[in-house]
Amino acid sequence: MTKIKLNGKKYDLVMHIKDLKELGLVPNDSQGNNEKMSGIMSGLMTGDVFTLIDVLASLLKGQLKRGEIEELLSQDEDIDKIFDKVEAFFETSPLTKKMATMIAQPAKEALANL
Questions:
Q1: What is the mean pLDDT for each group of 10 consecutive residues in the chain (114 residues)?
Q2: Contacts of 73 (CB under 8 A, 6+ apart)
Q3: pTM for the full model?
Q4: Would you call 4 helix, strand, or coil by DSSP?
Q5: Ramachandran region of residue 73, left (φ > 0), alpha (ψ -120 to 50) or beta?
Q6: Which residues pair with 10 in a beta bridge?
Q7: CA-to-CA distance for 68 and 100, rounded, in angstroms?
Q8: Which long-range contacts (CB under 8 A, 24 or more apart) does 102-110 make?
């Protein structure tokens, strides 16, 4: 199980099918899902805090409320590490691994050329 540290406290990152649906991924829409996952991955790679909040609100449901996540992130000194950890989580979670990895590699190359 992957753990994430927010402002000094550790939380479990967990991915279920319902979490995918909350993130906007839906059955039988591979093109739409790829676009949505591209948005999520590029948001995480470029440091979009709103993407990070949306993702964490889904993955930490039952552990933290959205407002608590926002407050913890605004106080956290290591927010860059949080972005990296969540991005890596998508690239290693069995439910998102293949799609996230296919999207992340070209995106990382494109960002490196900016």
A1: 89 92 90 92 94 96 94 91 95 93 81 71
A2: 6, 7, 49, 52, 53, 56, 79, 82
A3: 0.89
A4: strand
A5: alpha
A6: 5
A7: 27
A8: 103/34, 103/37, 103/38, 103/41, 104/41, 104/45, 107/38, 107/41, 107/42, 107/45, 108/45
Burial class (CB in 10 A: 0-12, 13-18, 19+), 6: buried
For residues 35 and 41, give the distance between their C-alpha atoms in angstroms, rounded to a whole number. Answer: 10
CB atoms within 10 A of CB 11: 17
How far apart are the C-alpha atoms of 31 and 76, rounded to whole Å?
Answer: 35
Structure tokens at 2: 């992957």
